Amino acid sequence: MATRLGRGRWILYVLGVIISGGLLALPVAAQNGEGGYDPALVPASPQHVQRLTLIAKDQIVEVAPGVKVPLWTFNGSVPGPIFHVRQGDEVRVTFVNKTPMQHSVDFHAATTPWNVWYQPVNPGKSISFSFVPRYPGVFMYHCGTPPAFMHISSGMYGAIIVDPATPLPPAKEFVLVESEFYVHAGPNNTYQPDAQKVLDVRPDYVVFNGAADQYQAHPLVVRAGDRIRLYVLNAGPSLFSAFHVIGWIFDKVYVDGNPANTLHGIQTYQIPPGGGATLELTITQPGTYPFVTHAFAYTGKGAIGLIKVLPAK
Ligand SMILES: [Cu+2]
């Protein structure tokens, strides 16, 4: 059933691309389904005008094995779709609210007035705006409707990767969005978001791409000698990330994802809530290398995945 659903969505997506004349930006297959959330970054569409569609949608998401939580989402997944554009592109955003409550969208990659474009959108309504990303980087988008901590902790966030005008060298590219979930159990194995735990910063799960431990079962796979480029966004809402790969060192870290801010030889890099970083490493010895937040109280709550390095071809 999951396979058939996936294929159906894929067909609809292809039809959408054909009907729109190929003008839709290409999101990663952003579904919290079997096999987990696909972390691979797809290339940016060659078009200068990038059209992004975000739909607020209520969705039950399994954030850890057996823990299915009714969440507020963009496009039915947590995180929402990963968008990939270039510095200087024209980005046209359409946000449609298909839920019974107010939501909004805030793009950190944009420079535009909050009081005009980032305001709550009523149920059944939509809003459209455009912006030109001035800086390359790993940027968050999210719902900012008050209380924002509740909308973010309930799943309304995602990443937009803005490539620099001068492209980076080829690499195996992955996107990891770290975030927290705060829940309480109800009857019959049901779960609900827990606002008090959010305010107390007592997370039940700290995860990459919306589900605890998913990249232990489904590691990121590369070969020895590959340049690995990790685009890491910290969606929070409240914890700092201490991003680290066990067994290796980052050759370069681009602060906020901008190559103009390059650090060299970094063991652990701190990423604030609402911030991002691009981290590059080239692992030359085959093996398994975990990636974690080195804030170890949280690692065991799901913030650990694996990079599997196969022998060079
Ligand atoms: Cu919202």
Rounded radius of gyration (Å): 19 Å
Small molecules bound in the structure, each named once:
copper (II) ion
Q: Globular, elongated, flat, extended or rod-shaped: what is the shape?
A: globular
Order of helices and strands: HEEEEEHEEHEEEEHEHEEEEEEEEHE
Enumerate how many helices there are, as a single number.
Answer: 6
* Fold-level CATH name of the largest domain: Immunoglobulin-like
Total strands: 21
- Side by side, the strands of the main sheet go 12-9-14-19-16-17
Largest sheet: 6 strands, mixed
Poorly predicted regions? 1-31
For the record, the CATH class of the largest domain is: Mainly Beta
Distance between the termini: 36 Å
* Class per helix and strand makeup: mainly beta
What brief labels describe this structure?
313 residues; binds copper (II) ion; 6 helices; 2 domains; 6-stranded mixed beta sheet; Immunoglobulin-like; 13% helix; disordered N terminus; 42% strand; 5-stranded mixed beta sheet; mainly beta
Summarize this, please?
This protein has 313 residues and is mostly beta strands. It contains 6 helices and 21 strands. The protein has helices spanning 2-19, 114-117, 148-153, 195-200, 214-217, 296-299, and strands spanning 49-64, 67-74, 83-86, 90-97, 106-107, 126-131, 137-142, 157-163, 172-181, 183-185, 191-193, 205-208, 220-223, 227-236, 241-245, 250-255, 262-266, 268-271, 275-282, 287-293, 304-310.
